[in-house]
User: Fold these one by one.
Assistant:
Number 1:
Amino acid sequence: MDISIVVPLYNEEESLPELEAWIRRVMEANNFSYEIVMVDDGSTDSSWRIVEELAAKNPCVRGIKFRRNYGKSAGLHTAFEAARGDVVITMDADLQDSPDEIPELYRMIKEDGYDLVSGWKKKRYDPLSKTIPTKFYNATTRWITGIKLHDFNCGLKAYRKQVVKSIEVYGEMHRYIPPLAKWAGFKKIGEKVVQHQARKYGVTKFGLMRFINGPLDLLSVTFVGRFGKRPMHLFGTIGLVMFLVGVFSALYIGLSKLYRLGQGMKTILVTDNPYFYIALTSIVLGTMLFLAGFLAELIARNAPNRNTYLIETTTDDKD
C-alpha cells in the first residue's frame, strides 16, 4: 500500500464527508493505493455515525473510536500502530489542511529520501491570539531542539513508515513529533510550504491550556530525548557541581575563621555566618540531586525497553 492517511477527529461531523471525497479524488487522480484511518476521539456529535457510513461506501476508509476523549496524541499513536502504508500522512479533519498537498509530500518521502516532511502554513487564516503565540513557540522549539522548522505543530505531515512505527506519541507530544523522530535516529527532516484554509465548519478544539501544556511538554520531550537513557549525566553533573561548591564554600568559611583567630582578629561564630547556611544547603541539594540521578539510572536500566535500539534491515516490512 502506498499511503496511509491518518485523520484524528473530535466533533467534526460537518467536514468529514467533504474531506473523504476530497482525499478520494486526489488518490484516484494519482493512482495511489491508500487507506484513510479516521480516529474518533470520543466525539459527542454524530461524527462516528458518519465515519461508519463513509467506511460502508468506501472500503479504503477505516474507523477507530475511543470511548472518551483522550486527546490528539492518543489518536495519532493508535493510528500509527494501525497504519499499513509505506508513507503515512497526517492531516486535521477541519478542512484547513488541503489533500492536494499529498502527492508532493509523498514524492518528497519516496524520491527525495526524507524521513519526515512537516507542512509550513506560511500564510495562516487564524486570529492573532493564535498566530503570535505560535511564532514564539516555534522560535523557542527551534532553539532548543536544533531542528530548523517554521511550523512544528502543523497537522499536515508526511512520514516514512519506519518513523511512525519507532516513536511513541503520548500526553500532548503531537506538537513535538519532529524532535521525537530526530532523537529516535531519523535525522532527514524537511519542510514544505502548504496551503492553509480558513475553518469552514465548527470551532477550534484547543483552549488556553495549550499555552501552559506546550512549554511543559517541550521541557519533557527535551529531557527524555537527551537524558532518558542516562539521567545521571544531568542530575549527577548538577548535583556534583552544587556539592563541590558547598564543600569549598564551607571550607573557605572555616579556614577564614581559623586564620582570623590565629591573627588575633575579631570574628563571629561559623553558625552566625549566613554564607555557612547557603553552603550547607548547596551540599544537601547536591547530595539529593546526585542520589536522584543514581535512582533514575537504576530505574532506566531496569525498565522494559521499547525501541531502545532502532535498527533497519536490508529487507523492509512490506504490508
Number 2:
Amino acid sequence: MIHPTAVIDPRASVDSTCSIGPYCILGADVELGEHCELMSHVAIHGPAKIGPHNRFFPFCVIGGEPQDTSFKGENTRLEMGSHNVIREYVTMNRGTTKGGGLTRIGSHTLIMAYAHVGHDSVVGDHAMLVNAATLAGHVTVEEWAVVGALCAVHQFTRIGAHAYVGGGTIVTKDVLPFSKCVAPRETRTYGVNAVGLERRGFSKDRIRRIQHAFRVLLNSKLNTTQALEKLKLETDRGEDVDMLLKFIEESERGVIK
C-alpha cells in the first residue's frame, strides 16, 4: 500500500490500511489514521494528527509551518477529523503559540483546489472551501458553511454555521449563521472587443455591424427584449449579429450589459 518512491520519516505513524502513492512525503510526528489515501506528491508535515478515511489529492501540503514572521519553530500542530476530501494544491498550516498552537479541521469537509487554511484556523464539520478560498490566520468556519471560490477571509473572522459566502467576496467582518453573503456585483459590458476581432481577421464591415448591435443593446433606451425586436427587424444585420441575438435568447441567467 506504500509506493516505493514515498518518503516516510521513521517517527511517523501510518496505519497499515493506508494507501501512500508515488512521491508522497510524511514528516516526523505525523499520525495517519486508517484507510487514508494519499494519491501522489502529497506532503504532510508534523506534528499532525490525521483521522481515518481522509483523501488527499496530488500536490497538497498539510501541516506546513505557519506563514507568520513570529514563528520560530515552536512545537505547534494540525489536527484533522475523518472523511475529508482535500483537493489539489491545498495548503494547511500548523498553529502558532500565540494563537493556541493548533489548526483544526473537522470531519466530512470538502476543501477544493488551491484553497488555503492559515495558522490557528478552525474549519467545522461538513464545511466547504471552494477553489482558491483563502482563510487568513485565526479564522473560524463553522459547520456546514460554504466559502465560495476566490474568497479572502480576514484574520480573526468567523463564518457562521450554515452560511453561504458567494464567490469573489472579501470578508472582513463576521458572517451571520444561516445567511447569504456576497460582494456587490457591478460587472458591466463596455462595448465590442474590436481589437481582438481585427486580429482574428474580422472585416471592418463585420465589426461595424456588431458595433451597431451593441449600441442598440447597451446605449439605447430600449430594454433587452425591445432591443432584440428592433435588431431582428434589420434585414442586413449579418451572421455575427444573428449569433449574438441567439446567445441572448438562450441565456438562462441573463446577460451582462
Number 3:
Amino acid sequence: MKKYRLLMIGLMLITKFYAIAQDDALAPKPLSSIPADERTLSIVPDKAYFKSWLTDGRDILIAPIKWNGYQWIAFSGVALVTAAIMTQDAEIQQIVLKNQNSFMDWASVNGLERLGSGVYSLPALAILYGVGAITKNDKARYTALKGVEAYIFGFVTAQVLKQLTHRHRPYDDDPPNPNLWDGPFAPISNSSFPSGHSTVIFAVATVIATSYNKTIWVPILCYTLAGLTAASRTYQNDHWLSDVFVGSALGFAIGRTIMNNHIKKLKILPVSHVGAGIMVVYQLN
C-alpha cells in the first residue's frame, strides 16, 4: 500500500500546485464575442489557429524558465515520487501480472489502449467539433481544436524523451530490469520512458476538463478515463509504473500550458474610469 500512497501523493502535489499557480477557467462567454485582437486563437482551423501552435510549442519548451515557486515545488514533488516509484518498479510489475483477469485484459486491449492511442479520442474530438459547429457552440469547437493540438504536442514530446532515454520495456529482458537505460543512440525498440499513451490522454483530458471545469462531472470523467488508460499501460506490461506516472504528469502540464495561453491576460486600454490617461486590466478568467 505504501507504493500506491506515494503515487497518490505525487498526483495530488502536481494537481494542487498547478491549480494554485495558474488560471484554469475558459471564458464562459462565446469566444466570438471577444474582440479579435484580444484572442490568441481561433475557433476554426485557420492561419491564426496554426500560428498559435508556435506560441504554445515555445511555451511548452521553455516552461521551466518561467516557472514560479509553486511550479518548482510541484516539479520537485513529481520528481521525488517518480524516484521512489522507480525503486519499486520491478516489484509492482510482478504484483500486477499476478492479478490479471480476462475482463481487464479485454477492457485494456479493446477500450483503454485505443483511447490512449487516439483511435477513440481523436474521433471523439472530431464529433465534439462537429456538434459545436452545428449548434454554434464556440467553446465546443475551441476545445476540440485545442484537444487535437494537445494530442500532437503530447505525442511529439513523449517521442523525443523516448529517443533520449531508451529505457527498456518490462518485456524486453528476462528477467525484466527497470534499470536499463541505453541513452539517445540505442535502437528504437527500447523506448519505455515515458508512456506515450499516458502523456497524450492526460494532455487531451486536461484540455477538456479545464475548458468545462464549471461542469463538475466533466473533469471527473476526463481524469478517470485518463487515469484508467494510464494504468492499463502497466497492466498490459508495456510500461513500468514510473513511465506511466511521468507521462501522466507531463500530459497534464502540456494541457494546462496550452489552455492557459488561450486569451491575453494583460490589456492596456486608452481610457481610464478615473480621468485622462490609460488603464491596465489584468484578466483573471
